[in-house]
């Protein structure tokens, strides 16, 4: 009795008139995303099968008729719910773009209160919009008009939740959100720097062991895993704008081009060169 060959496939696009908007489409069977973060808002739908993921300690199942609404810098994972795998369409929207739309609606910033919403209308709208943009044949005016209409509808139907900003010390986690933000900001400001665990721990007046444990409790990732993901996300952005792979590796703290290739392919299933060709 033969079994079907596992399919792990992903493609990336961007519409020439929508700078910073990244589109992807994938089909997975056994591939599993480790805990990670994104620098942008990630919206997505499953068109076949179902994806299960953990966000903020709660488990979710993203099936047909639902839309994922992941905020920037929120730790999550992802894998197929069933043995047959799933197909997914994703759009990443830069924070600056989302903030601009939010301000037009009278909001200072937007923060989705849940990582997914059940909304068949938005689900179908997203699929149509995604197909329109990856084809790349619509005009700049048409492409951005449809995108803005979709975002307006999404934000109107699902107003901003409570911000995940500064809070008081949480005795269960140890680190306050302010302290976590300070550490994350240091990583974002100097992603190329070979930061030492002791340096980050000193930032919040903890021992290395205390900091390592409490940062992981607060974010779901170790400091090293978080730094690595930030480097990879920034590498994607630079590659999308045509930077040389060797320069990107050096710019964001990878040992060499080979190190970037291995980490990039492990995270995104494509080499940096393959990703760049698709985006350019």
From TrEMBL:
Keywords: DNA-binding, Transcription, Transcription regulation
All residue ranges annotated as the HTH araC/xylS-type domain in the record: 181-278
Upper taxonomic lineage: Bacteria, Pseudomonadati, Pseudomonadota, Gammaproteobacteria, Alteromonadales
PANTHER family: HTH-TYPE TRANSCRIPTIONAL ACTIVATOR RHAS-RELATED, TRANSCRIPTIONAL REGULATOR-RELATED
InterPro entries, sorted: AraC-bd, AraC_XylS_family_regulators, Homeodomain-like_sf, HTH-like, HTH_AraC
Pfam family, one: HTH_18
Organism domain of life: Bacteria
Annotated protein name in UniProt: AraC family transcriptional regulator
Entry keyword Chloroplast: no
């Amino acid at each position: 009795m033969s079994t079907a060959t596992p399919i792990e496939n992903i493609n990336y696009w961007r519409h020439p008139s929508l700078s910073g908007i990244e589109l992807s489409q994938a089909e997975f069977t056994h591939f599993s995303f480790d805990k990670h973060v994104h620098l942008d808002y990630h919206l997505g739908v499953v068109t076949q099968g179902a994806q299960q993921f953990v966000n903020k300690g709660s488990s979710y199942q993203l099936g047909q008729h639902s839309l994922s609404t992941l905020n920037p810098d929120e730790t999550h994972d992802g894998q197929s719910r069933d043995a047959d795998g799933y197909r997914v369409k994703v759009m990443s929207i830069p924070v600056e773009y989302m903030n601009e739309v939010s301000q037009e609606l009278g909001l200072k910033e937007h923060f989705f209160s849940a990582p997914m919403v059940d909304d068949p209308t938005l689900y179908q709208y997203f699929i149509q919009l995604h197909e329109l943009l990856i084809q790349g044949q619509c005009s700049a005016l048409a492409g951005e008009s449809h995108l803005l209409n979709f975002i307006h509808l999404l934000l109107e139907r699902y107003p901003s939740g409570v911000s995940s900003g500064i809070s008081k010390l949480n005795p269960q986690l140890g680190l306050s959100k302010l302290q976590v933000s300070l550490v994350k900001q240091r990583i974002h400001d100097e992603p190329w720097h070979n930061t030492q665990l002791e340096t980050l721990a000193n930032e919040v007046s903890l021992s290395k062991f205390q900091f390592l444990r409490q940062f992981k409790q607060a974010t779901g990732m170790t400091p090293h895993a978080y730094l690595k993901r930030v480097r990879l996300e920034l590498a994607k952005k630079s590659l999308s704008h045509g930077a040389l792979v060797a320069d990107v590796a050096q710019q964001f703290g990878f040992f060499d081009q080979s190190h970037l290739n291995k980490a990039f392919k492990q995270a995104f299933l494509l080499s940096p060169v393959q990703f760049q060709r698709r985006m350019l």
